[in-house]
Amino acid sequence: MTAQILDGKATAAAIKSELAVRVAALKERGIVPGLGTVLVGDDPGSRWYVNGKHRDCAEVGIASIQRELPATATQQDVEDVVRELNADPACTGYIVQLPLPKGLDQNPVLELMDPDKDADGLHPTSLGRLALGIEGPLPCTPLGIVELLRRHKVEINGAEVVVLGRGITVGRSIGLLLTRKSENATVTLCHTGTRDLAYHLRKADIIVAAAGVPHLVKPEDVKPGAAVLDVGVSRDAEGKIVGDVDPGVAEVAAWISPNPGGVGPMTRAMLLNNIVEAAERRAGR
Ligand SMILES: Nc1nc2c(c(=O)[nH]1)N[C@@H](CN(C=O)c1ccc(C(=O)N[C@@H](CCC(=O)O)C(=O)O)cc1)CN2
After folding, report:
1. What digits encode the pLDDT tens for the residues 204-233?
2. Residues with CB under 6 A from ligand 1
3. Pick the CATH number of 29-117 from 3.40.50.10860, 3.30.1330.60, 3.30.710.10, 3.90.470.10
4. Which of 17, 75, 173, 224 is deepest in the core (most CB within 10 A)?
5. For atom 1 of ligand 1, which residue has the closest CA?
6. Residue nearest ligand 1's atom 20 by CA
7. What are the tens digits of pLDDT across the range 34-77?
8. One fold for both 29-117 and 140-264?
9. String of DSSP letters for the chain
10. What is the distance in A from the centroid of ligand 1 to the CA of 98?
């Protein structure tokens, strides 16, 4: 079997076209959605992601508000920028690019954000709303994964999903999303403390690999016909992305997301989606 590709790049392009129509409709009512980003430090990867977010905004007609701080910024400096964006009426929603440089604590920064402007769905209120089943912004990568599966008609209802990695942007939050009644999956969250990873992987209909361990998921651990989503980002000596999924998995799985070109572009598209939804929610009030 050679797996079909879960094409994140093409799917994200389709979603962006749909969002551009909704942004135009908002503008006709005098509402211009604006995305703010806070970038602290000089990590080239984080800068690339933030620049990509603003390129996407330009494509769909969302206004951009960029705030940058040096790696020497203090906790107070970062929190001041958060307060400024909370008060900025041009900013519909914003994100603080993670991870923050060493020495800065991300949790007080996330908590300080106005939950109504949380474009990443990572504020404690947003995660609480997700747990309680209340409408609100959802974390972009989990949302992107669900949308990628849905648009490729991969069955989520009743599926056994195994997630590798317990980080907040993917692993922890995707369990909450996929176990909602509307998705109805059974989710096992594996991490570095999991004793027998292969045992869990072999029973999975859907694998979400977000451990950041190159080629952790081997073909012999994948059930034939499974869908495998590779979210891992490690780099080889030339700086090329190495995912969490061994290339041989494509011979066993029915569906596989490429990396790059799979979940990454979907994460970006879902951020735009969160901004448009926030602007629509506000307009409807
Ligand atoms: N505040 C946040 N920080 C981080 C998040 C997040 O959702 N919110 N997620 C990641 C980084 N990220 C978005 O911020 C992100 C990662 C990857 C991509 C992407 O499109 N990747 C490309 C490949 C790019 C490359 O070659 O390096 C792909 O997969 O095709 C977009 C966004 C951590 N931080």
Report:
1. 999 999 999 999 999 999 999 999 999 999
2. 48-49, 52, 95-98, 120, 140-141, 169, 241, 259-261, 264-265, 267-268
3. 3.40.50.10860
4. 173
5. 97
6. 264
7. 999 999 999 999 999 999 999 999 999 999 999 999 999 999 99
8. yes
9. --PEE--HHHHHHHHHHHHHHHHHHHHHTT---EEEEEEES--HHHHHHHHHHHHHHHHHT-EEEEEEE-TT--HHHHHHHHHHHHH-TT-SEEEE-SSPPTT--HHHHHHHS-GGGBSSS-SHHHHHHHHHT------HHHHHHHHHHHHTT---TT-EEEEE---TTTHHHHHHHHTSTTT--EEEEE-TT-S-HHHHHHT-SEEEE-S--TT-B-GGGS-TT-EEEE---EE-TTS-EE-SB-GGGGGT-SEE--SSSSHHHHHHHHHHHHHHHHHHHHHH-
10. 10
Domain parsing of the chain, residue ranges: 29-117, 140-264
9 alpha carbon – ligand 1 mean position (Å): 13
CA nearest ligand 1 atom 31, residue:
264
Q: What is the residue-averaged pLDDT of the chain? A: 97
**pLDDT above 70: percentage of residues in the chain:** 100
Query: What is the structure's pLDDT at 20?
Result: 98
Q: Which CATH superfamily does the domain covering 140-264 fall into?
A: NAD(P)-binding Rossmann-like Domain (3.40.50.720)
